Structure formats: structure tokens, C-alpha cells
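Late entry, adenosine-5'-diphosphate complex.
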Amino acid sequence: MTNDRKISDLGEFGLIDRIAAKVGSAAGVITGIGDDAAVTAMTQGMQLLTSTDMLLEDVHFRRSWHDPYRLGRKSLAVSLSDIAAMGAIPRWALLSLAIPADLPLDFIDDFTRGFLALAAEQGVALIGGDTCTSRAGLVVSVTIMGEQLPGRILRRSGAQPADDIWVTGRLGDAALGLKMLGFDSAQPPGSAPTGSAMAAGCSLNGTEGKDYLLSRLLDPTPRVSTGLALAESGLVSSMIDISDGLLADFGHIAEQSGVGGCICIDNLPLSAAFRLCAGKLPELHDQMALAGGEDYELCFTAPPENREKIVECVKKSGVEVTPVGIVASLPGVAVVRADGTPCTLQIKGFNHFK
Ligand code: ADP
Ligand code: MG
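Prediction complete; structure with ligand written out below:
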């Protein structure tokens, strides 16, 4: 019976073989899993982009609420989001796992299935990794590589005064999903529960809205095709993905571009489920929309004359974009209401060591 089997029954090499057996051949992969290093061929004229992310049990996720299939998807999604934010084409991934010896084999099978499903959807090949035992929970580390023509790569540092500030999709859903599980995005899942959003007074009719908000947390969609379309369009001056909340992440653009900005909190794109659940709680509503982490949407800047072309450009990728503010020449990020009055919230994004 497979469902009683543990990782320890299989051993390191048995597990690597099991993962490798599910990986097919892919364009650009000359030597994949199995040798001391993978060998890949880049597209001529393109530059290599590399990014790595860790997901730690009880810091980034809990096994009690993150099913292994969606955890596998999310492990790759957060890395894909970094490649998307640079406007690059994701190509290859490395998957490193530190696994508690008593973890059921089914868990890793489902995790791998999720990881490889998203990899196939995005045209990414798994070319290697590392596998070892863990005495302190499951640790997942994903390194992703992508490529792009030098002139198309989008950085955090290109924003210009008077540019519009844009975001893709909807904000705050993932943070509200986390709140529903009893945690706060200002604190990691390792800390004590702060009370569920339901208990705090949120109401959602039926389970549809709740499922939607949870899926935005547990199975985020990296905006790869949107990032790519924007990079190819030449319309955009800077870009970042929103992993720590819009306020913190636009703050990185501002800092690295040597500018500031003004964000209109009433213009933030919010989902129907978010409005329904958080609408009655103004403090929660504003905190989650402006500073909620893990939405993995994109924030970018562009000259105002490109407005219509930008809407047209991203249409094909099936994602909506919304202008939410304006880049300013003086440093600092202000938040205002639609009528221009300043918003005086004590808001912070998540920071691991604070
Ligand atoms: P080495 O000891 O030389 O580092 P390993 O025994 O760790 O080699 O790995 C053998 C092969 O299996 C390598 O190609 C490595 O990239 C691959 N590999 C190891 N762990 C994983 C994993 N979790 N997912 C995918 N490939 C892996
Ligand atoms: Mg190794």
C-alpha cells in the first residue's frame, strides 16, 4: 500500500529517481536530472535571469492547511513571479527539498505533481535540485532561471516622476485568506493565531467567496504572460512583483528609482469576495489591500501617455490592470483617499526579522 509509505522507506536516491521519472525531455535541456550539473542551451542573444526562494514549514506555510498539491504549485509560483516581474521567459528550475524522514510518500508525490503541473503550464523544465533529511519540518527551495533580450528586461530602477503606478489583478485577497485561517500577513504563520476574519466579523455567503480567497493564498497565479507582454511592449519604465504588499513593494521601486509616489487607496482593485468580507471592517480592509502580502500581482510604472496602449497590451493575457497612483520626484510614498485627503494608517508589510 503506497499511502502508508514514508520517505525513509525510499531513501534519497529512490526519491530522486521517483521525481526524475516524472520529468520529460524539454527544449534547451541537454543534460537534465542525474549528472553532477545540468547542461542547458540559452537562446542566442538573450541574457540569463536567476532567482531563488525558500518556503519553510511554519514560517511560510503550515501542513495543516496547505495541501501538498497546491504547496507544490506555490513553491514554483513564487519563483515564477520573480521572473515575471523582470519581464523574462521562465525556462529552467532547480528544486531542493529538506524532508522530515517520517513524511508520507503520498505527500511528496502530490507535491511533485503540483510542482510539475505548473512547470508544464509555464513551459519550465525541472533540471535538478538537492534532497536531504530535515529535523525541523519541510524546507523547499526553488531556483528558477529565465532569459530575455537585454533591452527588454524590466528593473525596479526605471520609474520616472509623473509616471502612472499600475497594478495587475486584485489586491488583498491572499492576506484575507490568511486571516481567515486565523493568521495575520503582518506576522508569519509560525506566530500565534490572531483570530479568524470570520470571528472578526467578516461574512461570506456560501463557500464560493471563501474558496476563492483561500485559493489566492494557497495557489497564486504568477503573472508570467502579462509581465512578458509588458516587457515586449516597451511601454513600461519599472516593474516588481507584489509579494510583501503594494506599499512595501512600490516602496522598493521608489527607493531604487530615486523617486517617491502617491497611491490612492480608493483606486485599489479589490475582488467581490474581498469587498464582501472586509468591507465592514475599514481598518482590516485598508491594511490588507495596501499591505497584504502574497498576492503575486505585478506593480509597474509607465508614462501617462501610454495609458490606453497598456490596457490594450495586457488584454491578451486575460488580466486586468488598474492605475493606482503617480510617481513623484520627492522621496517617500504617500497614501491618499479619492478626495485627496491623506490616509493616516499605521500600515506595514511583512518583514522576516521585525
Ligand atoms: P550530488 O551529490 O553530486 O550533488 P545528488 O545525488 O544530490 O548529486 O543529485 C543527483 C541528481 O539528482 C542531480 O542531477 C541533482 O540535480 C538531482 N536532484 C537531486 N535532488 C533533486 C530534486 N529534489 N529534484 C530534482 N532533481 C534533484
Ligand atoms: Mg546534491
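The chain has ten helices and twelve strands. Will revisit in the morning.
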